[in-house]
Amino acid sequence: MAGIEIKNLEKTYANNHKAIKGIDVSIKEGEFVVLVGPSGCGKSTLLRMIAGLEDISGGDLFFDSKRMNEVHPKDRNIAMVFQNYALYPHMTVYENMAFGLTLKKMPKAEIHQRVTEAATTLGITEYLDRLPKEMSGGQRQRVAIGRAIVRQPDVFLFDEPLSNLDAKLRVQMRTEIKRLHGQLKNTMVYVTHDQIEAMAMGDKIVILKDGYVHQIDTPVNVFNHPKNKFVAGFIGSPAMNFVSGKIERQGELHFINQGMKISIPEPLRGSMEKYVGKTVDMGFRTEYVYDKGLEKERRLSTDVDIEILVVENVGSESYNYFKLQGMDNIYSYRSSSSHAHSPGEKLTIGIDLERLHFFDTETDETIL
Ligand code: ADP
After folding, report:
1. What is the pLDDT of residue 11?
2. 307 and 216, same structural domain?
3. What's the distance, CA 6 to chain centroid?
């Protein structure tokens, strides 16, 4: 097993496109780290640099204290699982899993032991004689994972391994991979564009955009304490609501726009002083919006009058989409299905004052 240190790593492709722009990430031995970000942010490039499949243009990569920049992929003791499974179509499941070990000239008995053990772990023992084309997508992905396990690598690398599976299977497989990590305890680096998958799986998640790291933290912390507006909007579903408004002193400090006048919570008043008279963005999550008529316990903002436009009832809860007075954007508010709303309904809501986020409009950084 190995920990991974990524120091000021850069990647410039042959066409001069800079895909990774000086990244630092520290991955502890045994940690499950997810690289997540929108398409094109550089997550596959970073993973492939760890694997040795892409040259490193600048900076350093260490496995434990060993510098890996120039080490050949086959000497890195990593195993990679790809989105398209990359199985050999003419080989049986057993042969696919055994192939890498056979190449290494491992004794047959040991290969047999490793393959059967991995097959048991993954529940694919009964398919060992089948060809990949005789298996479903989920089963094929298990074979690809099995092929990685038998190599007993220091580091597992996953490149969007579940993207080709249907939604239900994806959720099932992500639980299986997480369980597998609990069992094997290897260092795992996992790439996905799906923030829900990232939140569900990672001990730690690395949020990338445009070749830069925007935040590295636990799922809970990136949700509750996003460092900037991009992270705030990227993590969470439905996405965080944002409104612009001015900071004004009316007695105490307030965030004010056409539809809202919200008292700035006490812990933020000091740092908000320098924004008096200026515009800031306020973010609030759909989960922390309440029907004023129903919620008595929490400290809510002053009344905000809204009109519901669209309701999505997803079973246990409803997502209500609304407009604020004088504004074009559409915002969301989550209610329990027992308090379902209907389009056209007028409602007074309040936002949990302890759950507000404010952002500097010039830098997009969170105001703390
Ligand atoms: P992600 O995995 O986050 O979707 P990638 O790491 O695949 O993103 O790509 C990051 C950026 O680098 C993208 O803008 C992509 O178009 C570019 N890129 C990827 N591979 C190459 C390549 N071989 N040559 C030039 N540009 C590339």
Report:
1. 98
2. no
3. 19
At 197-253, the pLDDT tens digits run: 999 999 999 999 999 999 999 999 999 999 999 999 999 999 999 999 999 999 999
Residue 197: other Cβ atoms inside 10 A: 21
* 230 and 247 in a common domain: no
In a domain, 22, yes or no: yes
Residue 327 lies in a domain: yes
- Regarding whether 337 and 227 lie in a shared domain, the answer is no
Task: Evaluate whether 6 touches 25 at the Cβ level (below 8 Å).
Answer: yes
- Please tell me the pTM assigned to this model: 0.95
* pLDDT band at 340; cut points 50, 70, 90: confident
366 falls within a domain? no
For 276-325, how does the pLDDT look when each residue is reduced to its tens digit (9 = 90+)? 999 999 999 999 999 998 988 888 998 999 999 999 999 999 999 999 87
Distance, CA of 36 to CA of 39 (rounded, Å): 9
Judge if 222 and 145 occupy the same domain.
yes
Domain of 114, in residue numbers? 4-234
CA proximity to 210, closest of 7, 43, 15: 43
Nearest ligand 1 atom to alpha carbon 47: 6
154 Cα distance to chain centroid: 23
If asked whether residues 91 and 228 sit together in one domain, one would say yes
CATH of the domain at 93: 3.40.50.300
Pair (107, 172) in one structural domain: yes
Question: What pLDDT score was predicted for residue 337?
Answer: 83
Give the Cβ contact number of residue 362 at 10 Å: 9
Can you read off the two tokens belonging to residue 92? 């049986």
pLDDT of residue 295: 86
- Distances in Å between the Cα of 257 and the Cα atoms of 171, 243, 287 are 41, 9, 22
Residue 41 CA: nearest ligand 1 atom is 3
Establish whether residue 44 lines the binding site of ligand 1, counting it when its CB lies within 6 angstroms of any ligand atom. yes
Beta bridge partners of 6: 25, 61
Tell me how far the alpha carbon of residue 164 lies from the centroid of ligand 1, in angstroms: 19
Question: Of 17, 21, 82, 214, which is best to mutate to test ligand 1, by the most ligand atoms within 8 angstroms of its C-beta?
Answer: 17
Q: Specify if 365 maps to a domain.
A: no
Pair 119, 266 in one domain: no
**Whether the CB of 209 sits within 6 Å of ligand 1:** no
